[in-house]
Each structure stands twice: as C-alpha cells, then as structure tokens.
Amino acid sequence: QVQLVESGGGLVQAGDSLRLSCAASARTSTYYTMGWFRQAPGKEREFVAAISWNSGVKYYADSVKDRFTISRDNTKNTVYLQMNSLKPEDTAVYYCASGSRWREARTQNGYDFWGKGTQVTVSS
Questions:
Q1: 99 Cβ contact partners less than 8 Å away, ≥ 6 residues apart
Q2: Do residues 56 and 72 make contact, with C-beta atoms less than 8 angstroms apart?
Q3: Which of 91, 94, 118, 122 would disulfide-bridge 86, Cβ 3.0–4.6 Å?
Q4: Parallel, antiparallel or unpaired: strands 10-13 and 118-123
C-alpha cells in the first residue's frame, strides 16, 4: 500500500505561481509512474502531468504545457508540480497519483494509489 500526501495548495491571483508537493510513503518503489490530476467543481477529474520513474519522460495536458513543470526526487519519495502563470481556470483540487502502467500514464487507469488532494484557487 502506498500513501500519498499532497501539499502546497492555496489561494493565489492570476499570474502567480505555486509549487505542489506529493510525499509518498517509505514503501514506494522508485520504479513507479507519478502523475498529477485535477478536478474542478462540476467537472470530471482530468490529467495534468505525468513523469516516468527515472524522470526521462514527461507528459503534460495541452492546457498546462509551457506553464507547469513536473519533477521528482526519488531520494525523498517526492514529486512536485511547479505551476506558473496560473489562470482562474486552473482552479481545482489537485491529486497526486502513483502507478505502474506507464502506457496509461495519461489516464486514471494508469494509477493504483491516490492522495486526498489539495485545493488550488486562482482569483482573477
């Protein structure tokens, strides 16, 4: 069982930056895909970004490309999401996920474990 705890969310203004962190439990294998998803009120959960176990490959949703950066530190069992130039439409609960199916890294099916989420609110 892998436990994931997100942190770093908050209320910011449009154009600001935030960095989310996701700390995984000590049992986490480094050979895991890590991803970020988000869910806005009244909408389905959507893919944001994913990173391979060795940081060699990263995927981004078109809506966040060039603004968000995913990274990981396997020595700390932590994955990060640096969010720049935030927009009101980025407002959502952001979830961290861990999984072993890299081919499905851009879908929820690729993940086995989920955090409880952290709220990001961007005001205009």
A1: 32, 33, 35, 105, 110, 111, 112, 113
A2: no
A3: 122
A4: parallel
Q: Which residue has the tokens 């895991």?
A: 32
From CA 114, how far away is CA 105, in angstroms rounded? Answer: 13
Q: Which residue has the tokens 């203004």?
A: 13
Tokens of 26: 């000590």
Structure tokens at 24: 């995984």
Say if strands 92-99 and 118-123 run parallel, antiparallel, or are unpaired: antiparallel
Q: How many CB atoms lie within 10 A of CB 97?
A: 25
HSE on the CB side for 43, CA within 13 Å? Answer: 14
For residue range 87-123, what is the model confidence (pLDDT) as tens digits?
A: 999 999 999 999 989 999 999 999 999 999 999 999 9
Sign of CA dihedral 66, 99, 93, 55: negative
